[in-house]
Amino acid sequence: MNPATVPTLVEDLQGDGRWLSMHNRFLLDTKEKEPDVVFIGDSLIQRLVHTEMWNNFFAPMHALNFGIGGDLIQNVLWRIENGELDHINPKVVVVLVGTNNFHCTAEQIAEGIMELVRVIRDKQPDAYIVLPTLLPRGQNPNPLRDRNAQVNKLVRSKVSAVPKCEIVTIDKGFIQPDGTISHHDMHDYLHLTNSGYQKAFEPVYELLLQLLTEGETEKDLTPSE
């Protein structure tokens, strides 16, 4: 059985219940707010909310951030199946998760991401699903970096036939000619700096801008009676 496709509650190993508290806070947001965009995923999504990129570009789009650090694909599956996309009608759902699935193969991670697509589509049949590529990781070339690159290739081939679902490339420009990643882009060679977020998420912003204005353009072009 592929662990990445089995919805899994995070075990409270530290004893403070923070993961479930965050999930419950997200549930409250779905009942109190009306987002056009929902971001959901691991720490790369969670930390986005503290950046200039979020404040200047994504927050004005009426976006919610449902990122939790350390999450695996199966944890995000559990969160979605337990209400995080209920009570709202976002136009776009952005999902970035998978780099923390250390014990999974590239094929298993790609299958897990496609299971996320299936569950999101079931919850939000009219929403557009955006899948940013997994980012490279580690200062120097390493197996996890290679695995993430393989996941991106597999997911790209799988989503090509899925309507209203698009993979957006955000992993370009991080690996330097000598194969290293700069701490100016990823301070710990995994998590993005402010400038790293600008580099990675600008393509996401451009796609969201296009998707959110398409409907408005169609309305503007509708002949008045």
UniProtKB/TrEMBL annotation:
Q: Where is the SGNH hydrolase-type esterase domain?
A: 39-198
What InterPro entries does this protein's entry cite? SGNH_hydro (IPR013830), SGNH_hydro_sf (IPR036514)
Spans through the membrane: none
Q: Which UniProt keywords apply?
A: Hydrolase
The molecular function terms of the Gene Ontology recorded here are: hydrolase activity
The UniProt entry's sequence similarity note says:
Belongs to the 'GDSL' lipolytic enzyme family. Platelet-activating factor acetylhydrolase IB beta/gamma subunits subfamily.
Q: Which PANTHER family does this chain map to? A: PLATELET-ACTIVATING FACTOR ACETYLHYDROLASE (PTHR11852), PLATELET-ACTIVATING FACTOR ACETYLHYDROLASE IB SUBUNIT BETA HOMOLOG (PTHR11852:SF0)
What name does this protein carry? Answer: Platelet-activating factor acetylhydrolase IB subunit beta-like protein
Its taxonomic path starts at: Eukaryota, Metazoa, Ecdysozoa, Arthropoda, Hexapoda
